[in-house]
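HUMAN: Quick job: go over this next protein and say how the chain folds.
***
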Amino acid sequence: MPWLFLLLALGALFLAFSTTSVPLAAVALLLALVFIVVGVLGLLAQRVGNQSRSEAMMVDPAELRRLREQADARRAAATPPADPTPHDPR
């Protein structure tokens, strides 16, 4: 669809440069500008839409909590337990 706007802009530019009427050329140039802006914004919207992640790949809160608990359990198992009796150097 954005390519259609860019083709319309090209047609409006052709009309603006081929006409002998100044008001028609001004309207055609204005239309060409509008079509170019809309076409470029459409292309950018498509690009952003293609780069966005799928909602299906996102982690739900319950799964995230379970993963955090697993990470905490692994971290607790990896650290050695603290010695409860302090050593007195005297």
Notes: The radius of gyration is 32 Å.
